[in-house]
Amino acid sequence: MIDVYWDNGIVVRTNNFEIMLDPIIKTNKISSVFISHAHRDHIYGLLNEYCLKYSTSQTIAIGEVLTNKKIKNVIPCSYGERVEIQNLELHFINSGHVFGSAALIIKNRDVTLLYTGDFNFSRSLIQEAISPIECDIMITEATYGRPGIVFPPREEVYLDIISWTAKMINNGFLPILLVYPLGKAQEITKLFNKFSSIPVVTHSKISKINEVVRSFGENLIFYDLNEDGKELIESKDCVVLFPYNCNINKLRTKYPNSKIGIITGWAAVYKNIKNVDISFPLSSHSDYPQLIDFISKCNPKKVLTIHGYAKELAKSLRKIGIDAKSII
Ligand SMILES: [Zn+2]
């Protein structure tokens, strides 16, 4: 018997074990937590000193940089690793979302549960895609789970980003790209490193995470905005990465001769995002067809949806004969 419910995080309870998945508060109600990745809305579980934290070494390292704290009481896990606990097996796999992101499989004698966390069913330059797992219960994110949300092929968007950047430099503008500091920033740094000779200058929030990723062996080449990137910016012969939530008016004032683009999956949903010159629909999540494809391949008996278009995704799944409901 495995019981699943929402209580400021997903609680999974068996007869003798309880774990909270990605709590959204600094909870101390439960003694064990799983943190799927180091995006801000998923790392509250790292902040509670006393509970036991299961996460990948990469996520813990990024969490320490983001919270500026040494995280205690952790069990670092690798992709493919299995941990036995109270007649259960916890199995950690790559979720394809961002550097270090993991999905969790909880298995007892009768039931296999898969918690996807945020996941991507398409391969990026940084992460392999998630692999489907046969399961009985699946808890899946539904960020883009509304019918009709479809991303263009990743390679096409990669090409568009490089072409636009080269064109801006050629026309004497400083190209600025707004990205998520964890995920898109590493992917775009690698994109320019691998397929162009355009130097990448990064805001300090991005530099810090890029450094952690580099410490795990990913060869990212970038120049910090306030250090060796200064001269490059003056020359305008580079691309600059800023966090997606930067104040665009301030950026335009500081860099009057710039053009600003944003890279986000929401560009496939909304025409006008912020006050930018261009937007590129690239996401670290799966789009709607990928969600349906992945879920179908896992062949679950029951699907519980969370985040984003949770209700819409559950409805679509029921239409194709899969028992599904939103849990928040
Ligand atoms: Zn995320």
From TrEMBL:
GO MF term (any one): RNA endonuclease activity
Domain spans labelled Metallo-beta-lactamase: 6-154
One Pfam assignment: Lactamase_B_2
Superkingdom of the organism of origin: Archaea
Name of protein: Metallo-beta-lactamase domain-containing protein
Alphabetized SUPFAM superfamilies for the sequence: Metallo-hydrolase/oxidoreductase
Gene3D superfamilies to which the protein is assigned, alphabetical: Ribonuclease Z/Hydroxyacylglutathione hydrolase-like
SMART domains with a match to the protein in the record: Lactamase_B
Alphabetical list of InterPro entries matching this protein: MBL, Metallo-B-lactamas, RibonucZ/Hydroxyglut_hydro, RMMBL
